[in-house]
Design brief:
Layout: H1 12-22, H2 25-83, H3 92-105, E1 110-115, E2 118-126, H4 127-141, E3 143-153, E4 156-165
Antiparallel strand pairs: 1-2, 2-4, 3-4
């Protein structure tokens, strides 16, 4: 039997060990120092990256939490609106009379007229009262603002708007 001087399983690890053993003590010391420098640099780089990411998270996490809260509020509002029964269909005349009565009861001197597309609102009123009245019309009668031109001057507003039902 003829045995060779190199082992049959000369894998990468055994070749690395053989290379290490061929190095002089001085070369081994230099390779060890180089390995320590590379390891220290890697650890410092990892620590710097970790610190940078932590700062980024501290900036973005509050914004993400606020957005999540807005989405949750919107979802609960959508669920509430879906659970409310649909408004009964109203004739244009009933909508007109309801809007006129509502405006009079709030002391708004607005002109409310029926038009082919819905109700035409014009006149002057207090801005806050006008917005509150429009919100009430939407909630109670299902009237939505289709078109509106509003000019605000201090607490007063001049309005020219078209309201109608979006359900037909």
């Amino acid at each position: 039997m003829n045995t060779s001087s190199t082992p049959r399983n000369s894998g990468p690890v055994s070749r690395l060990i053989q290379s290490w053993q061929r190095l002089s003590p001085r070369e081994r010391r230099l390779v060890g120092i180089a390995a320590l420098v590379v390891a220290a640099g890697s650890v410092l780089g990892l620590l710097d990256w970790s610190h940078t990411q932590r700062e980024r998270l501290q900036r973005t996490l509050p914004r993400a939490a606020a957005q999540l809260e807005q989405v949750q509020e919107a979802a609960s509002e959508i669920a509430r609106l879906r659970s409310t029964p649909p408004l009964p269909p109203s004739t244009t005349r009933a909508l007109l009379e309801g809007a006129q009565a509502s405006a009079r009861s709030r002391g708004l001197s607005l002109t409310v007229q029926a038009s082919g597309e819905g109700l035409h609102i014009s006149g002057q009123a207090g801005f806050d009262e006008l917005v509150s009245w429009l919100a009430t019309l939407q909630k109670d009668q299902g009237l939505r603002v289709f078109k509106m031109e509003i000019q605000r001057q201090d607490h007063q507003a001049t309005v020219d708007a078209l309201l109608g039902r979006s359900d037909g």
